[in-house]
Amino acid sequence: MAPPKTYGDDLELVATIQALLADPAQRDSPLREPLEQLLGHFQGQRERLERLVRISDGYHHVAREQRLSLVEQYDKQVRRLEKLVRISDRYQNSLRELSLALRDAAMHDSLTGLGNRRYLMERLREENDRTLRLGRGFAVAIMDVDHFKLVNDEHGHEVGDLVLQAIARAVETGLRKYDHCGRWGGEEFLMLLPETPLDQALVIVERIRHAVSTIDRVGEQRVALTASFGLAEHHGEEGFSATISRADQALYAAKAAGRNRVASA
Ligand SMILES: Nc1nc2c(ncn2[C@@H]2O[C@H](COP(=O)(O)OP(=O)(O)OP(=O)(O)O)[C@@H](O)[C@H]2O)c(=O)[nH]1
To answer: How confident is the model at residue 98, as a pLDDT?
Structure first.
């Protein structure tokens, strides 16, 4: 089988025809006219082919430009996205910090820095769940400053505030590191002693009662302070509200019995 014709073969043929037409010996040849037509046809084809090549080159050029600009656009978008991610990360971090600060503020008493009632309720729920799971009880003590109204009346509200802060420090210092304490309201504080039977809790609460009674000065002001305590041990079979009620009743009993003492229920 003959090999396929190439463009080079065609050029050779064109050169042969041109040589024939240029040959003076062939001037009167009867083939001259068809050869001239063939040459014209070849030249027409060649021009068409060159036009096609130019168009194709142009098309490739445009496609290449478009491809480059697409790559650039893509890179730009990626950089923009990376920037957005960085901004969003920073934004989320500050939101997280803000929400932690808000949570902290919502859980703490601003005067004493201790946990507030909401904080204490969370700890009570946790300890209550632990008791239900593991069967270990906990003790609750409620402390109320004795005749605190007199402190305010005699020394003013500001000194009253300082007294509450000093008492908060005495309570914190007297507790173990795994105990919880907070301001239950006004001049009342609540202590939560995990996994502590009543007799052990009594020793700890007595220590705090004594510490409060030794506060004799806040700032420049001399003061005489005592506090009364109601203590109750929580058992799995009762809700923690019932334990708090019992501690409250014991506190009233301590007040009624003359204050500056611990009563247990
Ligand atoms: N300075 C100050 N006083 C407070 C604060 N919260 C409550 N109090 C005061 O605490 C006093 C509590 O008085 P009472 O409930 O009558 O009790 P008490 O004088 O402590 O007497 P007993 O509890 O019976 O020993 C009130 O005068 C309140 O105004 C506070 O944040 N700062």
So the answer is: 87
